[in-house]
């Protein structure tokens, strides 16, 4: 969840992906989240199997509580994301209303996953390091503590990238995909109106010039007749 979910979060924030179609980026985002969900389920099943085989109680620690809650909410997030944002059935106003909630819940789940990982490695150190103990700071404890610091830095970097406005996909790229088929994209309506207006002006000029030419022909014809 830490590595694959973070990749799914920042896949829209990479400048070299802004020229790709929004549908392609949605499929990549959904595919990465699906892979993370499968790996999370495998991990939870493996943890329960290990506890049952070793006669260790299940769901007694804060690590297990928050971890299971994160997996449950992540599965709901993935299901709603597929139903609302990937499949073409949800109306555009519903997508626009749920998008901030989808983004906020995704970032919250990622922060919860980081916290769960930190609690898990600390719990493992407390149970595994007996001689020497964890409090005596053996090399194993130092190594895992450094790993925990790297997890915090990594999580903060991902959250920073996901919250900065200049890392967002440009809005003109989003407008071409969020609008229904046949609808003028946002930001181009004024341009189309100006274009239509200029085309109309050109048509009026052509009509006026054509009428003037015909009027001149008539006058010339009348002049020739009067002369004759």
From TrEMBL:
Keywords: Cell membrane, Electron transport, Heme, Iron, Membrane, Metal-binding, Oxidoreductase, Translocase, Transmembrane, Transmembrane helix, Transport. It is an enzyme of class 7 (translocase). Its main location: membrane. Residues 199-228 have a biased composition (Basic and acidic residues). It catalyses: Fe(3+)(out) + L-ascorbate(in) = monodehydro-L-ascorbate radical(in) + Fe(2+)(out) + H(+); Cu(2+)(out) + L-ascorbate(in) = Cu(+)(out) + monodehydro-L-ascorbate radical(in) + H(+); monodehydro-L-ascorbate radical(out) + L-ascorbate(in) = monodehydro-L-ascorbate radical(in) + L-ascorbate(out). One of its GO terms (molecular function) is transmembrane ascorbate ferrireductase activity. Its cofactor is heme b. This is Plasma membrane ascorbate-dependent reductase CYBRD1. It comes from Corythaeola cristata. The gene is Cybrd1.
């Amino acid at each position: 969840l830490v590595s694959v979910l973070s990749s799914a979060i920042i896949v829209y924030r990479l400048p070299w992906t802004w020229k790709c179609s929004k549908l392609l980026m949605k499929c990549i985002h959904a595919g990465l989240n699906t892979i993370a969900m499968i790996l999370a389920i495998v991990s939870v099943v493996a943890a329960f199997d290990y506890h049952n085989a070793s006669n260790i109680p299940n769901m007694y620690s804060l690590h297990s509580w928050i971890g299971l809650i994160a997996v449950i909410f992540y599965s709901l997030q993935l299901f709603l994301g597929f139903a609302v944002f990937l499949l073409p059935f949800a109306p555009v106003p519903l997508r626009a209303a749920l998008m901030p909630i989808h983004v906020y819940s995704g970032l919250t789940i990622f922060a919860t996953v980081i916290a769960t990982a930190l609690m898990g490695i600390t719990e493992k150190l407390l149970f595994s390091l007996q001689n020497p103990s964890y409090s005596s700071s053996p090399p194993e404890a130092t190594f895992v503590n450094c790993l925990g610091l790297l997890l915090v830095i990594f999580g903060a970097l991902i959250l920073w990238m996901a919250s900065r406005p200049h890392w967002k996909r440009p809005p003109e790229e989003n407008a071409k995909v969020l609008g229904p088929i046949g609808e003028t994209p946002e930001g181009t309506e004024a341009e189309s109106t100006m274009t239509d207006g200029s085309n109309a002006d050109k048509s009026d000029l052509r009509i006026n010039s054509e009428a003037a030419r015909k009027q001149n022909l008539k006058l010339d014809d009348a002049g020739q007749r009067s002369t004759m």
